[in-house]
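In response to reviewer comment 3 from the previous cycle, which asked for concrete evidence that the modeling workflow produces usable outputs, we include below a single protein chain processed end to end. The sequence was submitted unchanged, and the resulting structure tokens are shown without manual editing.
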Amino acid sequence: MDSLSAEQKQEYATSFAALALYDGGAEVTSEQIKTLLDATNNEVEGYYPIIFANFLADPTKIATLITTPGGTGGGGGGGGAAGGDDAAEEEKEEVKKEEEEEMDLGGGGMSMFGEEEGAGGGDY
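The workflow returned the following structure tokens.
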């Protein structure tokens, strides 16, 4: 915790307070968050409980954040697929391509130094 900035510590404290309220079945409001922070001797800027309460007021939002691994991730992903079969076919094709690439990596008649294998010109 020593390596965290003051802002990061305040965000963590507010996050944990909101999670504690959710876990206890209490309503997640800025007042409740502030009360819990005060009770645990955590001092945060006044806007943190408001921001967190506005974002996490709906219990399903918190449940979604808890059950969704990782973050939002990067871009990627083109248009939506028409069905699950397309994704399965693409995965099979990808596996086949990987297998073919592995097979092609075998001895292609050249060593990694550009000479033909078995030419005996090496120092080892």
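Residues 13 and 42 are 7 Å apart (CA to CA). We consider this sufficient to address the reviewer's concern, and the full set will be provided in the supplementary archive.
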